[in-house]
Amino acid sequence: MALIALSIFVWIAFLDTGWGSKPAAYHSLCRLEGRTADCKGRRLSTVSQDLPPGTMELFLDANVIQTLKNASLVRYQVLQSLSLCENGLELIEPGAFLGTRSLSSLSLANNALSVNYSATAAALGTLPALRKLDLSGNLLNEAMMATLIQDLSFLESLSLARNSIMRLDDSHLKNLPRLQHLDLQHNYIFEIETGAFDGLRWLQQLNLAYNYIPCMVEFDLTQLRMLNVSNNQIEWFLAAENDAAFELETLDLSYNQLLFFPLLPKQNKLRTLLLMHNQLNFYNNIFNDSEGTVQLLFLDGNITNITTLDLWAENHHSNLSSLQFLDMSWNQLWYLPERFFEGMSSLAHLNLNHNCLKTLQIQESDLVSTLVDLDLSYNQLQDLQMNLDHRSSLANLRTLSLSTNRLRGLPAKIFTHTTKITTLDLSKNPIKLCASHAAGSPSCIDISNAGSIRNLFLSACDLEILDTHIFQGTSIAHLDLSDNPRSLLDGLGPLKDVAQSLQVLYLRNTGLSAARTNMDFSAFQKLVNLDLSENSLASFPESLAGLELQILDLRRNRFHALPQHAMRKLGKSLHEIYLSQNPYDCCQLGWWDALHDRDTVRILDWNQVTCNFSSKFIRVANLPESVIQNCKWLTADMTLLHLVLVLPTCLALLVAFVIIFLTFRQRILQMVKSRYRRSSPY
Q1: Residue 348 above 60 pLDDT?
Q2: Which residues are within 8 A (CB) of 423 and not within 5 positions of it... i.e. 6 or more apart?
Q3: Residue 464: which residues within 8 A CB-CB, separation 6 or more?
Q4: For a tag on the chain, would you pick the N or C end, based on fewer CB atoms within 10 A?
Q5: Would you state the pLDDT for residue 295?
Q6: Exposed/middle/buried for 641, CB within 10 Å: 0-12, 13-18, 19+?
Q7: For residue 166, is pLDDT > 80?
Q8: Do the bridges between strand 216-219 and strand 237-239 make them parallel or antiparallel, or are there none, so unpaired?
Q9: Which residues cross the membrane (predicted)?
Q10: How many whole angstroms separate alpha carbon 282 and alpha carbon 682?
């Protein structure tokens, strides 16, 4: 009996919450799912009062609630998350949150809370369980911000992005001892006074991106794990010179005006260091020791500190043994100091592209066996020197990008030590590939027997005609030979050793011509992506019809027509095709219909495909009916013309035969009789 009574009590309580009374879909304005009510964009001016009382998550974004009145949420006493973004909200009355003491997440982004921020601050102070608050996009200055958060001592996450904050001091954030995440991006901050963040003892993530901070000196937030100060005007970053242990794991200084490598904390846990898009350089080769020091003056109230720093010092004096990702791309680096990589025993990804490096010398002690990805593209490298005698040097390297440099060769035995390399980009370098008889020559690069390479990029290297066995011993799946106009003048012979492994092949502008070269693709059975653009092909390689191509590029050739049966076969597997900038004949477009009728084939440049009719180029997609009719008449006229030309010839031959027969009839008959006359047995 007691069990039955308890069951009835639970059922009554369930009905009383409002969730068991009727299906959620019955609500006229809001979409209900579980204990979530979604009332976005319903032009509401007040909070709906007919939602289930057990609602725990309520979305009221994109409405017109300009004032959140007293007791607006008293019905929803178990509400935990409330979003009022983009309402034009100007005022939250002090009693608006009456009864919602369990509210832990509140989003008020993109409103106008700067109008009545004092009254709104009083309302926020009535939320003892509030842990996450979003005040971004409210035109708040630092005084308004400080007022709004003054009584939120239990707050853990705070967003103040996209406001009008210009400076920070120790009074603005002093009452947030439990704050862990602080977002101040997209403000106008140009000054941060010493001690501004001292009260945030648990702060782990700080986002100051997109402000106007000129420098960061005496950085001493030891508890911080992630700092983002990208897109500011920082010229130097100087951590406090002490032996304190910093928890910093990610530091983003990208898109600033850094002139020097940052002075990092001596003891840190840095894993990611982003320095791209600055003005970084090393200056030891430019300035002598007497010019290499600078005195920095720090003013802190009545206390003046003078610190002398050697700005040209090329050793980072920091423990970077945990660093895994270093990006120094898009800077002004002319060289790297000796032993720059020493101590980076965990470095896996190094990006140095878009700099001014002319030479790169890496000693044995600098090379780390953990390096996986090395990008040196878009520099001025003429010489790449690596001491690869050590067995573990670059043993885990998988990607090496050297494109757009001035390299003519690579370090000897580089492929012997980089046994795991899968991607090599040598495009836009004046290199030579070693023929089979010249393997080991320092003046060329020997690709053969680099069995681990799967992706090889050699575009725009000005390669000569390739040797027949240039890729012997490799299993390349992705090969780019584009913009080497002489490389395949003798045909596809140099590719026969990788024909069975190739899946992606770019042969744009490689000197291919079906009239002069062997264009048999029948051995390339795994090929799915083929680029034949910008060549001199006048006839379509019939062997392509036997492949299961998915992407095909035929632009800028000399095709007058494409074989209709081949297009039908290719259409079964083809997904994308490029066809434009060929002199197609408007009266031979049966192949176009074969492709266009297939829903699975996308002609990506369909609007640019043209054909020639009477020396005029017309878009195939909008071919006029008159041209189609003229093509039909032209076909009929050609048949009639052939008939007219053949019939008189046949008649003339017949008449000539008759005349000759009649003229020489007697002689012909006598000749026949004499040949076939037989003597009588009697």
Answers
A1: yes
A2: 398, 399, 400, 401, 453, 454, 455, 456
A3: 432, 486, 487
A4: C
A5: 58
A6: exposed
A7: yes
A8: parallel
A9: 640-664
A10: 127
Q: How far apart are the first and last CA of the chain?
A: 142
The DSSP H or E segment spanning 384 is strand 383-386
pLDDT for the residue numbered 503: 97
β-pair partners for 159 = 134, 183
Among candidate residues 150, 188, 135, 193, the one with its CA nearest the CA of residue 168: 193
Residue in this structure with the two tokens 């309580």, named with its chain if needed: 13
DSSP 179-246: --EEE--SS---EE-TTTTTT-TT--EEE--SS----EEEE--TT-SEEE--SS--S-EEE-SS--B-
Q: Work out the angle at residue 520's Cα, subtended by the Cα atoms of residues 519 and 525, and round it to the nearest 5 degrees.
A: 130
β partners of residue 505: 479, 530
Average of pLDDT values for 8-24?
A: 43
For tokens 């019955």, name the residue: 26
From residue 221, alpha-carbon distances to 153, 587, 616 in Å are: 20, 75, 72
Element (H, E) at 251: strand 250-252
Phi, psi of 526 (to 5 degrees): -95, 0
State how far the Cα of 479 lies from the Cα of 472, in Å rounded to an integer.
14
What SS3 state is found at 663? helix
Query: Which amino acid, one-letter code, is at 296?
Result: L
- Angle of helix 665-676 versus helix 625-663 axis, rounded to 10: 70
Contact 537, 516 (CB under 8 A): no
Give yes or no for a contact between 167 and 142, defined as CB atoms under 8 angstroms apart: yes
Percentage, residues of the chain above pLDDT 70: 84
pLDDT of residue 576: 96
Helices (H), 430-530: none
Which residue type does 470 have? I
Instruction: Output the pLDDT for position 363.
Output: 67
Q: How confident is the model at residue 533 (pLDDT cuts 50, 70, 90)?
A: very high
The per-residue pLDDT for 73 is: 94
Q: Are 155 and 185 in contact (CB under 8 A)?
A: no
- Going by the DSSP 8-state scheme, the letter that residue 32 receives in this structure is E
Dihedral sign for Cα atoms in the order 16, 20, 25, 31: positive
pLDDT digits (tens, 9 = 90+) for 188-203: 999 999 899 999 999 9
Q: Report the share of the chain in percent with pLDDT over 90.
A: 64
Phi and psi at 71, nearest 5°, equal 60, 20
Q: Encode pLDDT of 607-639 as tens digits.
A: 999 999 888 899 998 888 888 788 876 655 445
For residue 591 the two structure tokens come to 């192949």
Give the Cα separation of 384 and 410 in Å (integer). 7
